[in-house]
Amino acid sequence: MPMHPRQSDPAVPDPADPAPEGAVSPPHEDLPPSGGPAGTGPDTDAEPGPDAAGGPAPAEDEYTAELKELEDRWRRALADLDNLRKRHVKELERERLTERSRTAAAFLPVLDNLELALSHAGSDPGAIVEGVQAVRDQAVNVLELLGYPRHAETGVAFDPARHEVVGVAHDPDAAPGTVVEVLRPGYGDGERQLRPAAVTVAKRE
After folding, report:
1. What sign does the dihedral 94-95-98-103 (CA atoms) show?
2. CA 111 to CA 107: how far, in whole Å?
3. Measured in whole angstroms, how far is the alpha carbon of residue 76 from the centre of its chain?
């Protein structure tokens, strides 16, 4: 078949032909890909922010865990303190009962001797008086062993911590302000005083 020379289309410019004078040639630089400016597309390698993962930051997790641990310690301390308080109340009540029983047991021999003296009330009256005095001395001794000594001294200086004045008397043989008579004995000293002695004091001139 005979080959015909390629006919050029006058409407399509030949890239080999020089551009007409005054024509603007298109730029030859590579254009950026479509889809927006470079670096802002969906394939960028920028790291996500703290809210991208949808969970709290690691610092907040540590703070929450530490706060929970402190709250647990606080609750355990409150429970231990409450148990200690209950145990202390029980021990204190037990000590009170023990002390009361010990004191009551110390007075049992006194009651036994009183009953013995009453059983001989029809015999010698002098023996009854001696028996009652012996029981009294025994009771005084028990109180002293418990820490409450008896105070019924006369001729001593008046002491407001140990004596209670219930009367005054004029006694030329006694110095003013001294105890001349004990109407009711006192027991105990200082903070362990059961009661002061009721006394009569010599009158000052």
Report:
1. negative
2. 7
3. 13
d(CA 58, CA 52): 14
Q: Which two tokens stand for residue 155?
A: 């001729």
Give the three-state DSSP class for 198: strand
What are the CA-CA distances from residue 167 to residues 160, 183, 200, 202 (Å)? 14, 10, 5, 9
The structure tokens listed for 204 are 């000052």
Token pair for 5? 């020379």
Q: What is the mean pLDDT of residues 56-60?
A: 66
Sign of the dihedral through C-alpha 158, 162, 168, 171 = negative
- In the chain, the DSSP E strands lie at 150-151, 163-169, 179-184, 186-187, 197-202
Measured CA distances, 90 to 77, 102, 103 (Å): 20, 18, 20
58-119 helix and 125-145 helix, angle to the nearest 10 degrees = 170
Six token digits for residue 35: 């889809």
| Helix (H/G/I), strand (E/B), else coil: 193 | coil
Which helix H or strand E contains 95, and what residues bound it?
A: helix 58-119
In single-letter form, the type of residue at position 60 comes to E
The pTM of the whole model exceeds 0.90: no
Over residues 63-98, the pLDDT tens digits come to 888 899 999 999 999 999 999 999 999 999 999 988
Q: Nearest to residue 186, comparing CAs of 142, 153, 139, 137?
A: 153
Quote the CA–CA distance of 36 and 42 in Å, as a whole number. 10
